[in-house]
User: What shape does this take?
Amino acid sequence: MREILILAGEASGDLHGAKLAEQLRVLRPELRLTGTGGTRMVAAGVELLEQVEGVVGFVEVLRHIPAHYRLLQRLKARLRSGDVALVILIDYPGFNMRVAAAARDAGVPVLYYITPQVWAWREGRLATMARVITKAAVILPFEEALLRRHGVDATFVGHPLLDRSGNLPDRVAARAKLGLAPEGELLALFPGSRTQEIVRHLDDFLAVARALEALRPGLKVVVSVAPTITLDASRIPYPMVASASFDVLRAADVALCKSGTTTLEAAVAGCPCAIVYRTSAVSYAIAKRLVKIKHIGLLNIVAGREVAPEFVQDAFEPSRVAAALSPLFEAASPERRAMIGGLEEVRASLGAPGASARVAQMAAEMVM
Assistant: This one.
């Protein structure tokens, strides 16, 4: 039986891969779906060759090179078998670009969904992408034109998070769903989806919450827990909510977000926020030399300006972050009104729901 090989390397990729697999099983039920990913892809009918967890940071990646090398050799052998009709790569460029090259050498077409962020760093990858990627499905509005200028057959399919944002509850309904009090100010904390992010972020996220409690008596706090992590409840004096980011953002008045897709979720949910991030000192020093964009938060990158304040590395001081967040709780404040307008602009630029279905249709048409 011919197969489609779907390769995801972290939690978000597992989610997108699962949605894509569900659509592919409808369009091409005769094809076997195999790949790498997590529990969501398994539930969607993908036979995992290996369960994987992504890592970030230059130093952190070095520790995973042996495992990546072994997996790459397994995938190369599978690509040479003649059974793989199509490879779908989802994000995770450090590994997946190597798979794309191997697929090209084996004569297997490649659909890259959520392509490398060449607009941020390593623009030199564009020439390689044009050589090894058959088609690209991009999720940010400016990526299609950029990639096409460099010879990549790219199509903007909209952002996949919109597929999860239909019929969002209002503030009262979201709080009721989460078992939270309907009245009063609520801060939501999103410290990250990887263990290493929690190690670097959690204590200061909690310190921001305590500083805001001093500034705003009666403030309530909730912690959003990604499905990929487990938090020690003894360390956290606030309610925790698992795997319900949109509900938490709709319930909250303000959010503190680790940079990443959560910042775009905040835009879709219309929840004012601040963006923070911290990595190892060595990784940050390397990134400062290589990364060419002004902002780190996807929300601000899509907007092309600072809609939400950013606090990166040493600038991530709890008292400073709390002071920036406090005015956002006030409905009539200029800071909140300006941010709400910016969030609406970003939401409008992300396209329409249905990204997974559009990518599945592209994939179905690529399999002969």
Notes: The first strand starts at residue 3 and ends at 8. Residues 55-62 have pLDDT under 50 and may be disordered.
